[in-house]
Specification:
By secondary structure, the protein is of the alpha+beta class. Helix content is about 25%, strand content about 30%.
């Protein structure tokens, strides 16, 4: 069985990544994904809702794991 060499947590205040600055801008559901290092990435979704934001973050972090940049 393969083991993960590293993993990231998201969602809570003590997580590696958390969602902040949630707001609606025109037709977009916007938020900032903040890493515990201070790095941040702005997300703009066409689908409103925190549950959709959490799904977008999970997808982005999975992509990052295989080498795709969040930028």
């Amino acid at each position: 069985v393969d083991q993960l060499s590293s993993f990231s947590t998201f969602g809570g205040q003590s997580a590696d990544y958390r969602i902040e600055h949630v707001h609606i801008e025109k037709h977009y559901f916007c938020f900032t994904l903040l890493h515990s290092s201070g790095a941040s990435t702005l997300f703009r979704l066409l689908m409103p809702g925190l549950h959709n934001a959490m799904n977008a973050v999970a997808s982005a972090l999975a992509a990052q794991t295989i080498g795709i940049s969040l930028n």
